Protein 1
Amino acid sequence: MTRRPTKTVEVNLHGLREFEARAKLNEVLEKIPNDVKILKIVHGYHGGQVLKNLVRLDYVHYRIDYVQPLYGNDGETWYYLKPADDD
């Protein structure tokens, strides 16, 4: 039995302010297809903790099943997604 690769999408938030990053996440998560299971978010961390904290601690959306910080890379976080029709 072979496993199909999990479909992923990546979004880069580098250089955005917090409100811009939040709007970008909202836009992506509202439009992302149901077959995408992982949203990889590149937020960085050398320029401060604002985006990292937003992505890992503060941001909430109905499509997010759980948040996975990428160990060994403090500048990236993965969202594992639920289908849009799940409530």
Note: Residues 18-31 form the longest helix (14 residues).
Protein 2
Amino acid sequence: MPKFMLILRGDIQADYSKYTPEDFARILGDYEAWSSKLSAEGRLEGGQKLTDQGGKVIWPKPGKKVEVKDGPYVESKEVVGGYYLLKADNYDHAVRLCAGHPNLQFGSIEVREVDFMGGPED
């Protein structure tokens, strides 16, 4: 069965100050409920939230050298906040599985099929 990575993006400039601790607890519960539902269906392979701070961006340079910079950048409008890996029948099915995902309140979800490059699916 094909596997898909869901890349969760959010607006880095959003104002979250209006949210109370209770709001954040409810939102976290929504994420956990969505994950639990897919896990119970045997579709969720894994996923995690990424840290809000730090990170590195590696850029290729001439002569097989690389340049390492801090990232993501403040001037970015979106930041990758987390990911999931799930099993779905096809792209349309993977998109349908995203219905009701709480990240859609704050940003977007990019859906990409995992390419096993001719090898066996793990």
Note: The first strand starts at residue 3 and ends at 11.
